Amino acid sequence: MTTIDDNKQTYRNLMLHILCWALLFIVPLFFHGSDESWTNAWHRYLRGLGATVSYLLVFYLNYLWIVPRYMLKKKDWKMFLLINVVVLVAGQLAVDLWHVIINNYMPELNNRGSRLPGKQFSKVPRYFYGSLVNVLFIALAVAVRMYQRWQHLEEARKEAEAARAEAELSNLRNQLNPHFLLNTLNNIYALIAFDQNKAQTAVGELSKLLRHVLYENQQDYVPLCKEADFMRNYIELMKIRVTDNVKIVDNINVQPNDSTPVAPLIFISLLENAFKHGISPQGTGEIDISLSQENGEITCEIRNTHYPKRENDKSGSGIGLEQVSRRLELMYPESYTWEKGVINDGKEYFSKITINK
Questions:
Q1: What mean pLDDT, rounded, does the chain reach?
Q2: In this structure, what are the phi and psi dihedrals at residue 303, rounded to the nearest 5 degrees?
């Protein structure tokens, strides 16, 4: 299927060919000795026109037929060389025929200073020179075709890479939905055991979150203000579950109309991780969440008390942070930093993602 970009590229290539050959045909008119008249220069140009036309034919025979068919497609070097030998001989014969036409039918050109006085060139050096120039045009045709082939293969590789990346992103999003939903349902299940009213409220909060997950998550990017609202709703849902002994600091400083694009749910796994490992079995802990944007740079930093997962704790699959890492690589290559680790003698965990869009 031909696209607009393909048509533009074809047009640019056509204009480039016309320009190059126009220069090759026209420029020789302007190179003549100071003592040589324009009439003699014109006559000399007409005599050399046969050689110029032979260069053009040799180039396009190779560019349009010989190189694509016998070098690139069949890789038949012997046939490629044989055909070009025939082309070179035919080209020299065509030039000789042109000189015969000039001498027989335009004798005035042969008697008006067509050759420099005192210098006569034998056919052998002339054949050698003409064949050498034709070989250079054959090499040029090969180089142009090889470059175009490389360019085509490179474009195909980039398209395949983009398609693969898009498929991987789609797969990651599809994994994230059930992963997030499973974790949230586990939280609500824990609430049902000791406070059914809170569990009902949690279900209401969950419906708000699911709207964002089901609709916004299908896009590559969403406005930062919507992602900030999602994070606030998630924090409110988590507050229903935890006790008053857990200190939660919410510093989401994003304007209600902030349209800075951001990948949807890119920070949710960090939030889940904070609530999973930031609260002790006794129900105490501290979680500090901040999200901001300045001059297009998005920063999300989460700090929490560090209570490592017990060996007998089988909750979660551990794929959340791996998904975050892979999505950042795919959507923000070389445009993000992610600092994370345990500090304060193992008592605190921090995670900071900075995205430069």
A1: 79
A2: -125, 140
